[in-house]
Specification:
12 strands, globular, 11 helices, five-stranded mixed sheet, 36% helix, seven-stranded mixed sheet
């Protein structure tokens, strides 16, 4: 799996890799910093997304990483590369999308860079301010904690399926893919109730990815009840319509940008159960990273299952 191989090389080559490992780096000044890149024909297709939607989504994916660290988003910088054929109209619409989401979450654009390139390449750095005295990272899961998630999983993957098939019948699914909502408000709710460090990730690469990575980083087993994972009715209908395995969309679809984590039972009881759902518990690690109860087609996730299912940029 080339992406993990590259990450291993990077970690082993740098003399100081102490800031690496999570979606954001926390620095002493009380700031969280993250960076994400979107590449034309890898992460998006200009035939299926408008410039404004692309601008909005480019920022949303970064704000989601900030949310996964329980930080408050404050600033972004934008690096943008494009071929000579890129028009002023494209740039205007692209930045209208950026302006829209920045206005929604009180974020300021403070700089960036513009260069030429063969295809459109977008790289955004987001900066957030620490909003909790406690740490939120994938290596903080502890035995006895509750495993929780927000939102519905698989909607973005279903939306992409509709888009690629020229099917405009379900705008909710399509918007889930084109205009994702970072869980900033949900992160604020968590920051107010937690009484200790928590494990937390977003589902940019899928629910299965987040569960496995938390387990691996924390050296625990996450036991999850499939029946407690929310499955939207329109997702179920879309999976039947296109003959797609529902569990694949739910666990490996990605780009939903929900939050998944572990938290003490006492703190979880203070959360709004219409927003946060308990889907399992943290157990001692034995031979499986993730146990999935009530799902015969995917009863567990270990390294082999993870590497066969998760999205790989280099394939």
């Amino acid at each position: 799996m080339k992406e993990n191989e590259f990450l291993s090389v990077i970690n082993n080559t740098l003399k100081d890799n102490s800031f690496l490992g999570d979606d954001c780096a926390f620095i002493e000044e009380g700031l969280y910093i993250t960076q994400d890149s979107l590449v034309e024909d890898v992460h998006f297709d200009l035939k299926t997304i408008t410039p404004r939607q692309l601008g909005y989504k480019s920022v949303a994916v970064n704000l989601s990483d900030i949310a996964s660290c329980l930080a408050k988003p404050k600033y972004i910088t934008i690096s943008f590369s494009a071929p000579n054929s890129c028009t002023n109209a494209f740039i205007e619409e692209f930045y209208k999308g950026i302006s829209e989401i920045c206005q929604n979450y009180g974020v300021k654009v403070i700089g960036g860079d513009i260069t030429g390139g063969e295809k459109i390449f977008i790289s955004i750095t987001a900066i957030g301010a620490k909003a909790s005295p406690y740490k939120a990272a994938r290596n903080c899961a502890k035995e006895g904690q509750v495993v929780f998630s927000t939102g519905f999983h698989g909607l973005s993957a279903a939306g992409l399926c509709l888009i690629t098939n020229g099917d405009s019948s379900d705008k909710t699914l399509i918007n889930a893919h084109l205009k994702p909502i970072p869980n900033i408000k949900e992160a604020e709710m968590l920051a107010k109730v937690i009484d200790s460090d928590i494990a937390l990730m977003d589902t940019s690469d899928g629910l299965g990815d987040a569960l496995y990575k938390i387990s691996e980083a924390s050296n625990v087993c996450l036991s999850v009840d499939y029946n407690k994972i929310k499955a939207a009715e329109n997702l179920i209908q879309a999976s039947k319509k296109y003959n797609k395995p529902l569990q694949d969309w739910i666990f490996w679809g990605g780009e939903d940008y929900n939050l998944v984590g572990t938290i003490s039972k006492k703190a979880f009881d203070k959360l709004d159960k219409n927003i946060f759902t308990q889907i399992g518990e943290v157990l001692p690690l034995k031979d499986r990273n993730v146990i999935i109860k009530n799902q015969k087609d995917l009863p567990f996730i270990d390294k082999k299952v993870f590497e066969s299912k998760v999205y790989n940029h280099f394939e």
